[in-house]
Amino acid sequence: MTLSATVLMHPRFTVGAVDRRLFGSFVEHLGRAVYTGIYEPTHTTADEHGFRKDVADLTRELGVSVVRYPGGNFVSNYVWEDGVGPVADRKPFIDLAWRTVEPNTVGTDEFLQWAEREGVEPMMAVNLGTRGVAAAAALVEYCNGEPGTRWADMRVANGRTEPYGVRLWCLGNEMDGPWQVGAKDALEYGRLAAEAGKAMKLVDPTIELVACGSSGMGMPTFGEWERTVLECTWDVVDHISAHAYYEEHDGDRASFLASATSMDRFIRRVVASADAVAARKRSDKQITVSFDEWNVWYMTGRGGGAPTSSAAGIQRDAPRIIEDVYSALDAVVVGDLLVTLLNNADRVPLACLAQLVNVIAPIMTEPGGESWRQPTFHPFATTAELARGTALDLRVDAPTTTTKEHGEVPLVTAAATVDEQTGALALFLTNRSPEPVEVTLDHLGAQVTLEGAKRMVADHDPAVHGPEHAAQAIASCWGEVDTADVRSEGNRTTVTLPAESWTAWNGTLR
């Protein structure tokens, strides 16, 4: 049986501009994200600074625009001053978040110079768990200050004369979480974040600040946390964060395929909370959402979990932590989550796929060995490549299904962008149904030509670690689409979507 759906598109119906920072990622000092991830001096591809060129090449191919650093939970116990200066003088310390020994070989300068060489914008986080206002302002001065002051001169002494010009700053990380070192209630955090943010902007008024939102929509303080934090920080912050991870529970494939419904609700509820504060303050300021952690994460398997309990021993030498292995099904879900981010482009200018390498990542490596793409790599890279210009406000009329986790959800989702200068169109379609769906695109008032597409079709095979399985899954589930079945008649174009698939079309809109 083939189901049917309709997508209404008009070039004057728009969501907003697509910020390139929507295609960010995340590198935390966790597991092998840094050591034997982006950095491995003894690797055959290592550059003169010790960073793996093969990973850098894949990062560029992935289309990453922003990289958040150094955490994550890690940042709440991090003393940034200990990670600068001569490497031989730096002392290892116990990272309380992941209960590992951090060697302090890679720190602020190494990361920022890597980001600069690779053409990605850094997004720095400050420690508001065990530290506070003075350390946060000092780090901004170290990174962005002109020579002639204490912390800027320390940077100069460490070999960097020119300021780094870091614009994006996170005011801590997941401070509502009891797992966080230095966790706080909303009022305590809000007051600290307000003072830290004020001091940081006194050092550099051009920076953008991200306040910690709820670390999940299921947190007991969700909503009230956002209200309280924004009441405190309204005058200094520009964005509020959202974090969410998704996985298949107990074989509930339908709910998993509809994970993006939950992401959309999360965004809308955070936006509603922010706008309620704006209304109470009679303010025209618009706080946007920095969705700076999102991904599929199997917390109960596939390498999920981490030795964070007091009963676990301290691990050394970049242990393998949270190295999830992904299937084509996971890649379809990742593609659909990107659809949701595009459809909220007016209020979500920043997002970070967590993480970049090895830790719940699209890129995997072996120490001293090869690097490879997981299936989730491809929908992200394709969306980052094609989505340009303005996100269109599509109207989707599709059959629905009732899921255990999300209630009634549409079986087809869609997002589209158009480059108004060139007319380049990108159309992203997800079929969550176990049946094929015929989608009719009604493009009233415009001429649409679909020129080519790439597609991921979900599999039913267990994910297995290693480049061989990844290559096999990609070869069987990912590839170019035969455009012979595209039917166009006037202002109507029809395509067929295979069951449980994600498709990215490129074309023109005139």
TrEMBL record:
> Which reaction is this enzyme known to catalyze?
Hydrolysis of terminal non-reducing alpha-L-arabinofuranoside residues in alpha-L-arabinosides
**Enzyme Commission no:** 3.2.1.55
What Pfam families has UniProt attached to this entry?
Alpha-L-AF_C, ASD1_dom
Keywords of this entry: Carbohydrate metabolism, Glycosidase, Hydrolase
SUPFAM superfamilies to which the protein is assigned, alphabetical: (Trans)glycosidases, Glycosyl hydrolase domain
Q: Which Gene3D superfamilies match?
A: Glycosidases, Golgi alpha-mannosidase II
User: Which terms in the Gene Ontology molecular function aspect does this entry carry?
Assistant: alpha-L-arabinofuranosidase activity
Protein's GO biological process: L-arabinose metabolic process; polysaccharide catabolic process
**SMART domains cross-referenced by the UniProt entry:** Alpha-L-AF_C
Top-rank lineage group of the source organism: Bacteria
Domain named Alpha-L-arabinofuranosidase C-terminal: residues:
292-501
So what family is this one in?
Belongs to the glycosyl hydrolase 51 family.
> Which PANTHER family does the UniProt record give?
ALPHA-L-ARABINOFURANOSIDASE C, ALPHA-L-ARABINOFURANOSIDASE C-RELATED
Subunit info here reads: Homohexamer; trimer of dimers.
The protein's name is non-reducing end alpha-L-arabinofuranosidase
Organism for this UniProt entry: Cellulomonas bogoriensis 69B4 = DSM 16987
